[in-house]
Here is the input.
Amino acid sequence: MSETTPIAPPSPRGPLARCITRVLDRVEGLVGVLLPERWSRRGLAERLRVDRIPLALPGAGAGLAGLRILLVTDCHAGPFFGPGHARLLAARAAPLEPDLVLLGGDNINNHAGQTAALVPFIEGLDPPRGFYAVTGNHEHLNAEPGPCTERLAAAGVKVLRNTGVRISCGGSGFWLAGVDDAGEGRPDLAKALVGAEPGEPVILLSHQPDFFPLAVAAGVAVQLSGHTHAGQIRIGGWAPMTHTRHGFLHGRYERQGARLHVSAGVGTTLLPLRIGTRPELLLFEVESCHY
Here is the structure.
């Protein structure tokens, strides 16, 4: 994306696209019945990777140095992700000793009841700075995401839906902002930044990476996203679906000093299958910066 690309959020999908999504949702449910859960769980166990990433945060005080932030996105709890998957993730994540755990949206696949499958993961960790989440397009798939938000809250996860919170450590802090899904929801970054102090570093949790141009314009230091599954199926570097118009498929991107990190996520949709991509957990370790 060039510097002259207009700043615009992702466009909401039209009625036809939503109808197709619901049909595929039914197909996915059928596939989930035909394939035993242990099949996809074995694939997750064998291929899950942990990527450790130093996170420079301009303006961060010395007290934040070494703070560990774990990003877990696109679980898609449902036909291809059950409690066994959640326990596996907890077993992999607990030794990382994260201080803060972020769920990056598409936490469930198509209805709020699937939130229960995430509970073993949530209960398997005890991050001292808490659990936070945002909504993805799948939280909006069949209904408003309110029931899912309520169930996550009951499990100990605060959902940041156009709101933010200050994360403090050792006398230093940053503003953690979260916005509603940019494709199906109503994201409002201005509301999410209410309470942030002038000059305070901001980390934005947004399910869709294509929200990044708006984050850059608002002065956000770092955006953390998922949504793309890194293509999920990539053959010779080509993916039939990327879920990004700006090319933010996977990894790190930088614009005007701001950085975007896009995770491949841990779950799958439509098929419990990845080709040319791997599920991943991203562990960020904050570096103290005074510039």
